[in-house]
Automatic annotation (TrEMBL), chain A:
UniProt-recorded Gene Ontology molecular function terms: transmembrane transporter activity
Transmembrane feature ranges: 26-44, 64-81, 88-105, 111-132, 139-158, 178-200, 229-248, 260-278, 285-305, 311-332
UniProt lineage: Bacteria, Bacillati, Bacillota, Clostridia, Halanaerobiales
Cell membrane is among the record's keywords: yes
Signal peptide positions on this chain: none
Subcellular localization(s) per the UniProt record: Cell membrane
Protein's name in the database: Autoinducer 2 import system permease protein LsrD
Keyword terms of this UniProt record: Cell inner membrane, Cell membrane, Membrane, Transmembrane, Transmembrane helix, Transport
UniProtKB/TrEMBL annotation, chain B:
Keywords: Cell membrane, Membrane, Transmembrane, Transmembrane helix
Native organism: Halanaerobium salsuginis
Membrane topology: Multi-pass membrane protein
CDD domains: TM_PBP1_transp_AraH_like (cd06579)
Source superkingdom: Bacteria
Lineage, broadest ranks: Bacteria, Bacillati, Bacillota, Clostridia, Halanaerobiales
InterPro entries according to UniProt: ABC_transp_permease
Protein name from the UniProt record: Rhamnose transport system permease protein
Transmembrane segments: 21-38, 50-68, 101-123, 130-150, 170-191, 220-240, 301-321
TrEMBL record, chain C:
NCBIfam families found in the cross-reference section: RhaS
Protein name, per record: Rhamnose transport system substrate-binding protein
Annotated compartments: Cell envelope
A single GO BP: rhamnose transmembrane transport
Signal sequence coordinates: 1-23
Primary localization: other
One Pfam family here: Peripla_BP_4
Alphabetical keyword list: Signal
GO function term, MF aspect, one: carbohydrate binding
GO CC, any one term: outer membrane-bounded periplasmic space
Originating organism: Halanaerobium salsuginis
Domain Periplasmic binding protein: residue ranges: 29-284
Amino acid sequence: MVNNSNNGITLNREIKSEKEFSLKKFFFQWEWLLFLIFIAIHIINSQLSPYYLNTYTLLDATMTFLDKAFIALSMTFVIIFGDIDISVGSTIALASVIMAVLYNAGLPMPLAILVCLLVGVIAGFINGILIVKFKELSAVIVTLSTMILYRGIAYIILENQASGGFPMWFNFLGWGYIKTIIPFILVAFIIAAVIFYVLLHKTTFGRKVYAIGNNDVASLFSGVKVDKIKIIVFTLNGLMAAIAALFLTSKMGSTRPNIASGYELDVIAMVVLGGVSTSGGKGRMIGVLLSIFIIGFLRYGLGLVNVPDQVILIVIGILLIFSVMLSNLKLFSNKS
Amino acid sequence: MSEKSSKNKISLERIQQIREFSLIGFIIVLSIFVQFRNSNFLTMSNIDDLLTNTAILSILAVGMMMVIITRGIDLSIGATLALSGMVTSMTVSNYPSLHPLVALLIGIFIGLISGAIIGLLVAKFNILPIIATLGMMNVFRGITFLISGGKWVSAYQMSDSFKAISTGSILGINNLILIAIIIYLVFYYFINYTRTGRKIYAVGSSPESAKISGINVDRITWLVYSIMGGLAGLSGVLWVSKFASAQSNTASGYEMNVIAACVIGGVSIAGGEGKVTGLISGVLLYGILENALPMINVSPFWQNAIQGAVILIAVLVSALIKRRIGSSNKIRRED
Amino acid sequence: MKKFLISFMVLVSIFMLVGNVTAQEGKYAIIVKNAGNPYNEKEMDGFEKAINEIGGEVILKAPAEPTAESQIIMIEQLITQHVDAIAIAGNDPDALQPALKKAMSRGIKVLSLDSAVNAQSRMVHINQADPEQIGRVQIQAISEMIGGSGQIAVLSATSQAANQNTWIEWMKKELEKPEYDQIELVKVAYGDDLRDKSVSETEALLKSYPDLKGIIAPTTVAIAAAGKVLTDRGLQGEIELTGLGLPSEMAEYIKNGVCDWMYLWNPIDVGYLAGYAAEALVTEKITGNPGETFEAGRLGSKEVIQAGDGTEIMLGAPFRFDKENIDQWKDVY
């Protein structure tokens, strides 16, 4: 057993160093490229709107997109596996609805919040266990089914009603400030981002995630408990969806079964723009973080000069494609 | 070596056959159950409705199957469908005397171009399909909105001949069903009996070895997305003609239904696997769910959950059956 | 990592130096339910027209999808732009409350139109027509069409649609009257404002209730989808159809006799009235209390009235569209 895990680690290191050899430059450029885009967006936005370049505005803007960004952190792990989880939007709805119903049935709010997190954990765990036990099914299929199922359960529970009336302090999650200008959600997100950064880049767990993404058969033979790690990651993804549910519910002050629909695609866009490859094994947290803020500020800035939403979507779509195209071209130029 | 691989191939085919049979069995059980709850279910008129309403989904599913076989995915088809539908119906409302066939060709052409762009991005620029199609989904949707100026094209603006595309019938069979049948026949032949068709499987099973064996992987990939686009364009015309209205948010999110139908039909997201015959049962199951749930008087609030549960069960059961047969085959080989 | 942090800090400090934006006056914003829907486009047209008459700056916003989440982001953007008033057609009556309260706390006048937000999140609501009247009139219409007896069904938008749910409640109340003893409401189905789903729900109604006499569809997509199904099956005269729909979408089915008549109000007027009400709030001609009156351009004098626990301004009665007048309206909206 001890031997096994030792072997595992050395093998992972080998894989990693081999990868680094060919991809180091690429990643270096990729994240700098994102950073340049990030700066460009701020310059463009500040040219467009006189209101943009303002500390309050910029801090406030983060409140509009950070709820889904929490899921992007854990989704990064899922996509590094080469998997995907499209049930997160439905998980938000289910966790939020159950929390609201239990609170209104008399459960104290702190307990209701715990239940919300628990629902997320269970939903994610179910995804994980199904994916692991049914290897012939891909994560897309499993999470596609649970996506419909989880939201369906939320509909059964709340039907056409809304549920809310939360205590005042619960508002703080989505609307509160620390030191009067820093949004609480930004602080919470930074803490979460640091945790996930460390988890992915500084722990053996993170190394194993990369190893599985590169080659799960090889990592299985080298003693990595692929199943266990996959279940943990999907459970984590469910948990992060539940955390997003807390912030979103607080932001809306009430909940319905149809909230957070379509969130999964927004989250996936954040992660893939960050340079995480859906074919697995590649990507870093710093890229995802940059991409979260790129998409968020771009949307907010263009919205600030009242560009129609549909046009903003076109811009984001083209940005997504061009940035990936550019990085691919660079990769080629490195090779030749 | 060759013997072994042919043996494997046979068992793989058998697994797929049994899988299809189990799915058909599931469909039969489901139908009988629904029939018990509502005796109108298995009537000719309802079956006609069911098939008509599933026709567009089934056409899209053929294209999606080929995309998924090459290890890709296309999230943009709902947007392509809307774009084609909007352009076609705007043309029809301006030139009411336009022949319906021309309208169909316009729609297919727009879809082909959209698909070809995506194919180019995926094949030539090596952009992952999920990113390329996610991005282009936004772009197509936005373009549809911009050219329509937020307006809809309504029934009174469409010529009768245009609306007749999907309401008309030949020999008592609705045109939509006929078009779907023709497409299935064409693509059944294309995928199974042409060299290009077989190459699609080769690319999906192993792009590397396909490349080594001299297949132009880029060309096949590009072709597959173009076909998908063309079918989405065709579906756009059919959709707009069927519902006699074109909106910029037409078929928003429809790609998920199509992917679900493919997945139930045994098309593996991992690539290289999937048959037209299996696809039919997948599409049929999906169509029955959409048709039957409102008919058996379940609360509308339960429909989503039931749909999700049935898809999950169907997928899990077929996986279990496949596994069972796989292991019994292994034992036999050991003997 | 370090390089990024340093560059980020530099950027942030640049932002700190700039700032202090002066606000312009007379900025009026409208947020409709979603883009790409002619009804909402016309509401924006009306609003824009009113603000142009008044002489202010107008901001039109429409999210890509009809969700409360996207409207919250837009409200935040408008707060940042220091607008003077926000008129909103809410995608959820309750979920916008924290965002709209934040707007009001920054001195922005908030009013809702078309689809109300709850009384705590607005100063006044522009009501296109009395929901009670909208609900009751549709029952009266279907009763007249089917001759006072038989089964009827309702085909609505999504199960979460607040307006539709209120109207359906009033329909049910109207049905309690003794003169409708012979009418039975067999089902409320939801087409989710999707064409395909509305069509299959209509077909399911026809099959599940072979004796069905009438369908009420209080939303454009559903009534047009039902009109299409009834037309294709040649059921005009056998199954009656009424409800609320855009004249352009329904022209075909009103002319071919599938739907004898239906109702709607003029979305241009709804937006127009919202524009003048916004101006009245900003210039403090009204504060949103019952009994106040103001001049609403070509619509004349309008009064703020009590409705539930909030206040509203009523546009008028729902307008009846039939064979006689549909041609003059189908090109308008």
